């Protein structure tokens, strides 16, 4: 990316300071060299410089709109540590003057089954995992392709267009929330009980999908029609980071969905004027299939005492 777009800065989650201070440089360099195809160009110095290109001190932004990449190399670290046992996502987005115009997500352990229990299935049935890559460009839709087809160069021109689900009623929605938050901590809990068993959903219940790692995986679920809603509350003890949301936003929007804060306002990627690393959504982040968005915003507003 640096070779193709040397003038475009990068905002990313990591730099090499942690590797250096914990004696991990050699291990990381060995892995990169083993996987790389660039031969002599893959040196320790080049690898560390590449990692540091996205660090917080790599580039100073002015207050005006800017063009930059946002990279999340591993969203869902707990899933990545488990290896084949859980979902994690690699995400890359391009922001041009405050607008996200391009996004790519890769999920190696993604399962093609879109049933309500698919997140449970993906953790139990390794043979049925194909992995996917999701690509979105403003005005061009959101598309997916199996990673196995890309790696084997099978059906090189065959991509599947993504659409959000058609759920019109909040009670019939499939909802996903962060692993770190409980249903009771979110405002809709005052109106609906959450059930994880799709066979026993009754009046006043919503279906809460099993937890999966990382924010971007939940965006992927909404963009692909697997989930109707992803809701994340803002906690006083944590800050919402741009790399957890940027690529997911364009993928959901181009699939027909909607992403805002809890008041219905778009997420402002220029709010953090110096580093472009933080966003400050009111209440939290709401991701829906679009049809449910205004209804849920109204419900959140009516239950504002929970915020």
Automatic annotation (TrEMBL):
GO terms for molecular function: metal ion binding; phosphatase activity. Its cofactor is Mg(2+). Pfam families: Inositol_P. Keywords: Hydrolase, Magnesium, Metal-binding. It comes from the Eukaryota. Mg(2+) binds at residues 13, 72, 74-75, 244. Belongs to the inositol monophosphatase superfamily. This is PAP-specific phosphatase, mitochondrial.
């Amino acid at each position: 990316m640096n070779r193709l777009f040397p003038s475009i800065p990068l905002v990313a989650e990591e730099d090499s300071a942690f590797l250096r201070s914990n004696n991990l440089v050699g291990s990381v360099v060995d892995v990169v060299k083993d996987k790389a195809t660039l031969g002599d160009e893959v040196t320790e110095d080049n690898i560390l410089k590449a990692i540091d290109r996205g660090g917080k001190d790599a580039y100073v932004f002015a207050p005006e709109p800017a063009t930059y990449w946002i990279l999340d190399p591993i969203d869902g670290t707990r899933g990545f540590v488990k290896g084949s046992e859980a979902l994690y996502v690699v995400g890359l987005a391009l922001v041009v003057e405050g607008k996200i115009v391009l996004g790519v997500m890769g999920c190696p352990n993604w399962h093609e089954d879109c049933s309500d229990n698919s997140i449970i299935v993906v953790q139990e049935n390794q043979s049925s995992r194909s992995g996917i890559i999701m690509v979105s460009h403003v005005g061009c839709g959101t598309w997916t392709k199996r990673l196995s087809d890309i790696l084997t160069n099978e059906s090189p021109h065959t991509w599947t267009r993504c659409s959000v689900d058609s759920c019109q009623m909040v009670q019939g929605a499939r909802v996903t929330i962060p692993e770190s938050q409980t249903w009771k901590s979110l405002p809709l809990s005052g109106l609906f009980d959450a059930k994880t068993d799709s066979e026993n959903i009754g009046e006043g219940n919503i279906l809460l999908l099993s937890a999966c790692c990382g924010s971007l995986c939940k965006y992927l679920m909404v963009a692909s029609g697997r989930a109707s809603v992803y809701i994340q509350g803002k906690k006083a003890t944590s800050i919402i980071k741009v790399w957890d949301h940027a690529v997911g936003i364009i993928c959901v929007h181009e699939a027909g969905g909607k992403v805002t804060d809890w008041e219905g306002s778009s997420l402002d990627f220029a709010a953090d004027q110096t580093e472009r690393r933080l966003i400050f959504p009111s209440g939290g982040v709401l991701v829906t299939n679009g049809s449910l968005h205004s209804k849920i915003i109204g419900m959140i507003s009516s239950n504002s005492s929970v915020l």
